[in-house]
């Protein structure tokens, strides 16, 4: 056992008596073992003490420890044994051929055995064979070395606990940069199953662990297999007999050694990368030290070699694109700003990488590949092969330009075209230490070259002559040129950063502890350098600003610094606050703004804006305030610029405004005073409510300033809720309106009247405001006094109207008739709203607003109908009809229209008056009317609804009442008709059962009506049917029936008309004479026909006094005529009539009076003098006693 640090022998283990073929360490390093040719296995502890020994029948060829369970597999020529510390026994299994090598899987579940007959047998922990792999060639290709890749492609993350539910968690896929979601589910037996859907197949850790087995056979081939036995890719030809194979700890590389007397390094996919160490004899074993890059090699001649492998960083950078080698054969291009990455896969070792603009060059052992971007988009990451140079080159450095490849070979630089032709060559005095492309036109780019002797040159690709920029005494390690090509930064071998002026060759400054340097590509005077664990940022000649950062600075773009640390490149966002403040300290505002544009915080932008504003650098301040969106300061700058345009150039005044905006009020006041603008200081302090300071700047007795100060002080008192003091200050400053507003808002009536009485009557606006507040505070007396003082009579009238002080309003309108409408129209509306309709009518008439009266009544009527107040609706319709009659009387132009409306409204009034009783009968549990009365009412209503049904009236209710009362009184025929009619209507649910029952029971009654119910025509003595298709007129003589307005029985009245030429006054006078009846019997019938009616006139030519009544003779008419023939009487007939028997409806003009003759004088009839409705006298007297008025017109 040897110590790897220095190769000294620790201790020889003397328990072995023959050739030792193999040794193996346990995974945890606590046990190791040796195997003997004499079939013995000895297990030693880490303290080199033997603890166990067991034997095989044949010589032992190989041993291997299980990485998890420490189960030991020992293989011999004819069998293999499995020993575990727990069992203390060895289970052996026979094999058909000699075993040459063995290897456990990562999870210790399976053991692979390589045999001399070219077979690989994969067995489980119990020794049962699960998979058998047969190599081509069979016995001629014995499998001499096998090894499982120690790193699974999928690495599960560690979970703190597992639940019974399915858990989603993340797994890193080592073969790509993506993350995939897997599912963990519990199976019977408390086993967990990790699954992912892959190509529609379920991949499980129980079936496929993604373990890869590398197999090396003496058919001189290397092959790879899955655990399932499926081969991965094709066999790789080795050209030597492999004796040993070993993976690195993470599985990214593997080592192969054998008959070629060297150990070669391969990728995990089998791509040869290079030679680790050449030996003088066969290499029989090689191993990698766990978790490191150390390799140990054992040879046939007994030598043991120990190597350390160093994997250098191969990369290239241009601005924000960084290309680097990955897995030795791939190239990854990373966009440092967008963090996008693209992988370019390769099958060979990548030796050098160069990147420039849209070009990428990759050098491999036998060729150089040149790639280009697909497009000119700055964010494009798609590369395609542009050219291939199939030639082997040896170089120290590789540089690519737009059309050329530059190779550095010690002191020599070679320029090659993309086709591989050498175009130009430069030979330097010393070794080349650094090359950088600094840009230029395609095909004419410039290069910076730094030499070991301190010389710095500039080379152009199209020029064979090199230009010496300068020479220093120390060797060059790193170079960079500023954005404008005026300055050169050099890091030498003494870790010093030196900055030169390229044109004068002068050393501008130098800084220690630098290992790399980079100029800012967006700012000429800024550079950064790294060293000693710090990042240093330097602006111009200011001191360096430092912050901790590990790695090498390789680029500086704006506020991003690109830093390479070990193998990873990162973009570090660095705020540029420190250099910005360095410029601000020296009042270099424009330069500070340029630095800020690279990236500073909002607070830094505001500080820059304030400093520039105080320095009166308005352009820079405006840009900075725009960045922080400060509109307030932008308005200030805009106003100052406008003032400057108009010729103002007082810088002290500008600075005073700036100080005032910044809250530096005392400094601002001093500058205002110094610049002769004390009024501005006064205004500023007044606005700030700093009145004590403001008084210091009052001019010598300037009343205007004093008044302004008092006014602002009053405003302040108002704002701090001291209204009394504010009112007094406003009054002393002459601001009466504001004093009035405050007093009014607080309800101080005494203060208001005091102000109003002190004001002059010419000050109309303040007085009007006082009156407004008096009205609002319910003090109409003070308001009237104020209006009288101003002389505003119209406002006074409106005040009286609004406060309903009608007597004062009427008195004022009497004195000033022009205000008649302003008084009476609101008065009428108020009366109408108070249900005093008659007074409202008079008021509307007095104001000459008949249409308004009609409109109000129509609205009231409509509302009454909607609310089912049908008695009110009848009353309102009667009022409407009388209103229309009044309009027709006053306006001849509207006479026809108004008379039509009069008759229509009279009809609706009667209909709604009658329906009121029907509605009460159907809705209320008890009825106040006799069955005969309800029977007559429903008949009357049904006959009145022959044309159309007014709003709110229900035919169902009417027919239902008629049906019930007809059935009760014996009018069965009429009842059946009513029930039949009801069947065709939509009946409410509450009546449905009653109607259906009534329809059934009426069928059991005789189909005729009681004779007592049949109405009689008092003109022609004809019995009329109960159901009359003509309506409320006689079917024989067409004489309209006259109904009692209470019981709705047919009254014994016949309407008669006057002869032409007889006036109403004359007719009444003739009736009042009551002369003896005279008759002249000459049958002289005269027929008169007009456009509207036919009449029969009987002229009396005898003067004989007879007992016959002349009026009775007038009642006769010609039988069989379908037209109505009215009764027309002459003067003689009028003289014969008794005053007791005649009823006259004395309608106002333009209507004619209506005359009715009672044919039964003993039955007394009374007519309402207001609405002219007819009643039986006893019914009328009873109604008057009940209602104290006529039920129809409420008079």
How would you characterize the overall build of this protein?
Residues 1010-1054 form the IFT122 zinc ribbon domain. Residues 1-154, 207-310 form the IFT122 first beta-propeller domain. The protein is of the alpha+beta class. Among the domains are: 20-153 and 213-308, 7 Propeller (Methylamine Dehydrogenase, Chain H), CATH 2.130.10; 155-204, no CATH class; 601-703, no CATH class; 723-863, Serine Threonine Protein Phosphatase 5, Tetratricopeptide repeat; 899-1013; 1053-1162, no CATH class. It is built from 30 helices and 63 strands. The strands form 17 sheets. It has a 5-stranded antiparallel sheet, with no helix packed on it. Helix 1 packs antiparallel against helix 2 (589-598), helix 4 packs antiparallel against helix 5 and helix 22 (895-923) packs antiparallel against helix 23 (931-944). The radius of gyration is 62 Å and the shape is elongated. It starts with 19 loop residues before the first strand and ends in an 8-residue tail after the last helix. 34% of the residues are buried. Mean pLDDT is 81; it is low at 153-209, 1077-1084 and 1101-1107.
């Amino acid at each position: 056992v040897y110590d790897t640090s220095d190769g000294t022998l620790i201790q020889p283990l003397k328990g072995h008596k023959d050739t030792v073929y193999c040794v193996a360490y346990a995974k945890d390093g606590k046990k190791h073992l040796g195997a003997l040719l004499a079939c013995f296995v000895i297990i030693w502890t880490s303290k080199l003490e033997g603890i166990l020994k067991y034997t095989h029948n044949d010589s032992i060829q190989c041993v291997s420890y299980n990485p998890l369970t420490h189960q030991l597999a020992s293989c011999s020529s004819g069998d293999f044994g499995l020993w575990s510390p727990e069992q203390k026994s060895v289970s052996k299994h026979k094999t058909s051929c000699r075993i040459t090598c063995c290897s456990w899987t990562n999870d210790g579940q399976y053991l692979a055995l390589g045999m001399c007959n070219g077979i690989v047998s994969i067995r489980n922990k119990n020794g049962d064979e699960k998979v058998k792999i047969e190599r081509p060639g069979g016995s001629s290709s014995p499998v001499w070395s096998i090894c499982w890749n120690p790193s699974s492609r999928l690495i599960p993350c560690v979970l703190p606990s597992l639940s019974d539910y399915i858990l989603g968690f993340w797994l890193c896929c080592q073969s790509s940069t993506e993350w995939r979601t897997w599912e963990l589910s519990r199976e019977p037996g408390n086993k967990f199953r990790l699954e992912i859907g892959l190509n529609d197949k379920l991949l499980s850790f129980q079936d496929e662990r993604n373990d890869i087995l590398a197999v090396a056979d003496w058919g001189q081939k290397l092959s790879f297999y899955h655990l399932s036995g499926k081969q991965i890719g094709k066999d790789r030809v080795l050209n030597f007999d492999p004796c040993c194979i070993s993976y690195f700890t993470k599985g990214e590389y593997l080592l192969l050694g054998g008959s070629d007397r060297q150990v070669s390094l391969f990728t995990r996919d089998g791509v040869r990368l290079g030679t680790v160490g050449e030996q003088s004899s066969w290499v029989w074993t090689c191993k990698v030290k766990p978790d490191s890059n150390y390799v140990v090699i054992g040879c046939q001649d007994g030598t043991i070699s120990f190597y350390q492998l160093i994997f250098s960083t191969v990369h290239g950078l241009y601005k924000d694109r960084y290309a680097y080698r990955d897995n030795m054969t791939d190239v990854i291009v990373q966009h440092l700003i967008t963090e996008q990455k693209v992988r370019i896969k390769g099958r060979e070792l990548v030796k050098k990488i160069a990147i420039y603009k849209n070009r990428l060059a990759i050098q491999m052992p036998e060729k150089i590949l040149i790639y280009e971007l697909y497009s000119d988009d700055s964010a494009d990451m798609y590369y395609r092969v542009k050219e291939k140079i199939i030639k082997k080159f040896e170089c120290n450095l590789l540089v690519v330009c737009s059309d050329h490849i530059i190779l550095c070979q010690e002191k020599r630089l070679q320029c090659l075209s993309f086709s591989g032709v050498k175009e130009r060559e430069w030979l330097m005095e010393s070794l080349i230490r650094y090359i950088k492309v600094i840009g230029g036109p395609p095909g004419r780019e410039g290069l910076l070259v730094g030499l070991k002797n301190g010389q710095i040159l500039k080379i152009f690709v199209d020029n064979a002559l090199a230009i010496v920029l300068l020479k220093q005494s120390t060797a060059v390690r790193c170079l960079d040129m500023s954005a404008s090509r005026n300055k050169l930064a050099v890091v030498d071998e003494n870790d010093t950063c030196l900055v030169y002026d390229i044109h004068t060759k002068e050393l501008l400054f130098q800084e220690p502890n630098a290992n790399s340097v980079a100029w800012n590509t967006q700012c000429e005077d800024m550079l950064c350098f790294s060293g000693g664990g710090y990042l240093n940022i330097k602006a111009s000649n200011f001191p360096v600003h430092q912050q901790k950062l590990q790695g090498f600075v390789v680029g500086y773009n704006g506020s991003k610094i690109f830093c390479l640390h070990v193998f990873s490149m990162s973009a570090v966002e660095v705020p540029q606050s420190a250099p910005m403040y360095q410029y601000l300290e020296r009042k270099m505002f424009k330069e500070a703004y340029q630095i800020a544009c690279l990236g500073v915080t909002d607070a830094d932008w505001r500080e820059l804006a304030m400093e520039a504003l105080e320095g009166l650098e308005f352009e820079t301040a405006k840009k900075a305030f725009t960045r922080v969106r400060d509109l307030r300061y932008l308005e200030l700058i805009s106003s100052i610029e406008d003032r400057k345009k108009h010729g103002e150039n007082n810088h002290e005044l500008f600075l005073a405004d700036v100080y005032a905006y910044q809250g530096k009020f005392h400094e601002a006041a001093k500058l205002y005073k110094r610049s002769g603008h004390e009024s501005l200081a006064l205004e500023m302090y007044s606005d700030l409510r700093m009145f004590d300071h403001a008084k210091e700047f009052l001019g010598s007795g300037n009343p205007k300033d004093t008044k302004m100060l008092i006014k602002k002080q009053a405003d302040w008192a108002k704002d701090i809720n001291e209204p009394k003091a504010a009112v007094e200050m406003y009054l002393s400053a002459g601001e009466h309106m504001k004093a009035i507003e405050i007093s009014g808002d607080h309800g101080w009536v005494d203060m208001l009247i005091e102000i109003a009485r002190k004001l002059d009557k010419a000050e109309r606006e303040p007085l009007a405001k006082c009156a407004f507040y008096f009205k609002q505070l319910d003090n109409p007396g003070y308001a009237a006094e104020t209006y009288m003082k101003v002389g505003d009579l119209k406002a006074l009238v409106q005040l009286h109207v609004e406060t309903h002080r009608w007597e004062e309003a009427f008195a004022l309108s009497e004195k000033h008739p022009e205000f008649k409408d302003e008084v009476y129209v609101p008065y009428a509306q108020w009366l109408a709203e108070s249900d005093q309709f008659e007074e409202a009518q008079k008021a509307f008439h007095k104001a000459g607003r008949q249409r308004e009266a009609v409109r109000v009544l129509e609205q009231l009527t409509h509302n009454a109908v909607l609310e089912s107040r049908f008695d009110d609706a009848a009353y309102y319709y009667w009022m409407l009809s009388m209103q229309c009659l009044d309009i027709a009387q006053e306006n001849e132009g509207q006479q026809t229209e108004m008379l039509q409306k009069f008759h229509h409204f009279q009809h609706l009034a009667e209909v709604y008056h009658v329906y009121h009783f029907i509605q009460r009968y159907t809705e209320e549990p008890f009825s106040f009317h006799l069955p005969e009365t309800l029977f007559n009412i429903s008949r009357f209503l049904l006959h009145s609804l022959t044309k159309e049904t007014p709003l709110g009236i229900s035919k169902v209710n009417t027919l239902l009442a008629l049906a019930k009362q007809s059935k009760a009184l014996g009018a069965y025929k009429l009842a059946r008709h009513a029930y039949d009619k009801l069947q065709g209507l939509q009946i409410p649910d509450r009546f449905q059962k009653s109607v259906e029952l009534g329809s059934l029971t009426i069928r059991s009654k005789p189909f005729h009506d009681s004779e007592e119910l049949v109405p009689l025509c008092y003109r022609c003595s004809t019995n009329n049917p109960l159901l009359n298709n003509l309506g409320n007129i006689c079917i024989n003589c067409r004489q309209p029936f006259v109904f009692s307005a209470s019981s709705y029985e047919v009254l014994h009245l016949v309407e008669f008309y006057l002869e032409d030429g007889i006036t109403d006054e004359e007719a009444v006078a003739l009736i009042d004479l009551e002369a003896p009846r005279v008759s002249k019997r000459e049958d002289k019938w005269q027929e008169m026909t007009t456009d509207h009616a036919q009449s029969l006139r009987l002229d009396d030519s005898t003067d004989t006094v007879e007992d016959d009544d002349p009026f009775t003779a007038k009642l006769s008419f010609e039988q069989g005529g379908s037209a109505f023939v009215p009764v027309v009487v002459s003067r003689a007939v009028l003289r014969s009539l008794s005053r007791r028997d005649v009823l006259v409806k004395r309608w106002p003009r333009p209507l004619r009076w209506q005359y009715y003759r009672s044919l039964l004088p003993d039955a007394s009839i009374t007519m309402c003098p207001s609405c002219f409705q007819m009643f039986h006298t006893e019914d009328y007297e009873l109604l008057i006693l009940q209602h104290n008025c006529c039920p129809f017109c409420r008079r």
